[in-house]
Amino acid sequence: MSHVDDVALDLARLALADATHSGDAGIVDQVGEILGMSSQTLQESYLTSIRVLRAEARARALLDARRSKAP
Fold it and tell me: What is the pTM of this model?
């Protein structure tokens, strides 16, 4: 991973945690907008990290639900 990807992933995790804690999902978009004003490359990596983390959470929830229903 590059430094940009590391920073983007860290910011994505922080933004998603803040959104969960505060109930304000808009923080994710606000961070993305701020990043886009200065670095389109960092913004793109951040948005990719957001999508990956959300997809991972959905997949894990599905697998956990299936495991809890297994005989």
Answer: 0.91
Query: Cα–Cα distance between 20 and 30 in angstroms, integer?
Result: 15
How far apart CA 3 and CA 9 sit, in angstroms, is 10
Integer angstrom CA distances of residue 64 from 5, 33, 61:
28, 34, 5
Count: domains in the chain? 1
Digit-coded pLDDT (tens) for 26-63 = 999 999 999 999 999 999 999 999 999 999 999 999 99
User: Structural domain of residue 32, as residue ranges?
Assistant: 3-69
Site of tokens 């959300």: 54
Torsion of Cα atoms, 47 then 35 then 10 then 24, to 10°: -70
